[in-house]
Amino acid sequence: MEERKGKQEVMCGTLDLSALPLGCITLIISFTSPRDACRLSLVSTAFNSAAESDAVWGSFLPSQYQALIPSSLSFSSKKQLYLSLCENPLLIEAGRKSFWLERMSGKKCYMLSSRDLSIIGSDLPEYRRWISTRGARFDEVAYIRRFRWFEIRGRISISMLSPMTHYKAYLVCKVRNFCGLQFFPVKLSVGVVGTEGSKRSAYLQPKKERRRWPYWQIGEEQPIPGDDVQFPKARVDGWLEVEMGEFFNEGCVDDGELEMSALEIEGGIVKGDLIFQGIEIRLSTAELDTAWESLLPCQYQDLIPTLDSFSSKKDIYLSLGGNPVRIEGGRKSFWLDRVSGKKCYMLSPRDLSIIRSGPPGYRRWISTRGARFFSLDCHAGWV
How confident is the model at residue 217 (pLDDT cuts 50, 70, 90)? Predict the structure, then answer.
C-alpha cells in the first residue's frame, strides 16, 4: 500500500488469501459465525481445511461444553458435535431443563420444564397430575385437569444466556377441550427480577378454534379480543406456543435472574384440561428470519396456505423439510431437503402419461392409505 504525496489517495495491491498460513486463516474464521464458516469453506482448498477444523468449530461451542455431553455419546469432530447440539437438545440439571444451540449463530437456547416452574392455582394440587406424553422433550409434563385461576413462574440465571443477544420467551402447552380457556386472556411478562419487564396478553386457545358462548354459560359477558391480544401458534413438534415477551442480554449482568410469568386470575370460572410442557427461551425471530428466509425458495408464500400459523421462518423451513405440500392442483408434491434446502418433487400418476396394453377399463384411480395424492393409478409415481 502506498500513498501519493499531495493527494489523499491510497492504492492497495492485491492480497492472495491462500498465501496466508493455515493457522492464520483458522484464527480469522474462528472469530466469525458458524454460518460464515460454512460459506468461507467454499473459497478455496485452504479455507475449506481451516473452516472444517476442530479449532474453528470448537470456538463456536459454549464454554465447559464437555460437562453437558453424556459419556455415552462420541463425535468424530467438533463440527459434528456442534451440529448435534443444534438438532438434538440435551437434558441438563437432572432433566429439569433442555439446552441446544441455534444453528446459524451458535447462541444458547433453553427450555425450562414444567418441573422447573412454580405452578400454583385455586384447585391445585389435587387436580394436577404429572404425565408422560408423546412429543414432549421431558419425561413428565404438568396436566391440570381443573382450576379457576393459575399462576406460572419460571426463572433462569442471566449468566447462562449468550451475551449481546435478543431473546424471546414462549409458553409451550396443549389444551385438550378448551374448557373455559377461550373466555379470558392470560397475562404474560418477561423481565429481570426486581425490574419492570415487557408485558402482554394472550388467549391459550387458537384463534381459528375460538367461538363465543352464550352469556348464561359463563355468567358474564364474554370480552372481545383487542388487536394487541395474541393467540397461540402451532409448532412443528405438535405443541402450541404463545410469545410471553422479550429480553436483550447485554452481557453486563452475570448475577441476575430472568423471570417469566403467566397469570390468569380474573376469570373466576372453572377451566381445565391444560398441559404445560414448559417455557422456551430462544433467539428473537427478527434476528433469525432474514437468515432462514434466504434458505427458502422464491415465492414460498404461494406454496403454504396458512403462513400465519408459523411463528418464524425457521418453522416454515422445517415444515417444508418434513411435510411435503401438494402443488399445481394436487398433481405434484414439493418439499425441501432438510440438510441442504434443495427442492424435491414427486409427480403424481395424474401428472404422468401412462400408456399400456389392454383396454382402458383395466386402469382405475383409487385412494390408498399412506399415499401423498388423493387418487392413484397402478403406479405410485416417480421421484
Answer: very low
